[in-house]
Amino acid sequence: MTRLFAAQAAEDGASISAALLAEAVRAVWRLEALPETALGPQGKPFFPSHPALHFNLSHSGPYAFCALSDAPVGVDVERLRPRRAALAKRALSEEESAWYVSRGRRWEDFYTLWTLKEARVKYTGTGLTLPPRDIAVPLLDPGQHAAMDG
User: Fold this and answer.
1) Is there a contact between 74 and 149 (Cβ–Cβ < 8 Å)?
2) Are residues 50 and 1 in contact, defined by beta-carbon separation less than 8 angstroms?
3) pTM as predicted
4) FRET pair for 49, CA 20 to 30 Å: which of 22, 40, 94, 126?
5) pLDDT tens sequence across 29-85
């Protein structure tokens, strides 16, 4: 089972990420202290002393996001902001680009795809080793969900 936690800081979500993770670990797994963390070969964090407990963190602007699970998990959060139009062309596959254009080139839709891509590579632990346009994700409307690669 996966549990999600979110928090907002006054300025920088990175400043509260560790506290959010510690609070989540206490609430879900009843651990008194946050276990020591380490990074895998591609930078995915894990608990060496608790290999069956999986987590992932993300932060953007004032937001922090955390997931705990009994299976590998990846999350991403992004503060919405306009970007250069060329970014969508570099980051999206042809199918994703057509979906994005059909929805009016809204930045909300771009960030939906981008956060799915980041969450997927964080789930697999590969990081952004492929060009973003080569990282396939489902095309989802707000509130929808899908399973992919487990």
Assistant:
1) no
2) no
3) 0.90
4) 126
5) 999 999 999 999 888 999 999 999 999 999 999 999 999 999 999 999 999 988 898
- Nearest Cα neighbor of 88 from 77, 78, 98, 79 is 98
C-beta atoms surrounding 52 within 10 Å: 7
How many residues appear in the chain? 150
DSSP result, the chain? --EEEEEE-SS-GGGGHHHHHHHHHHHHH--SSPPP-EE-TTS-EE-TT-TT-EEEEEEETTEEEEEEESS-------------HHHHHHHS-HHHHHHHHHTTS-HHHHHHHHHHHHHHHHHHT--S-S-GGGS------TT-------
Tokens of residue 86, six digits: 């060329």
CA–CA distance, 143 with 102 (Å, rounded to integer) = 19
**Are 23 and 36 within 8 A, CB to CB?**
no
CB 47 within 8 A of CB 55: yes
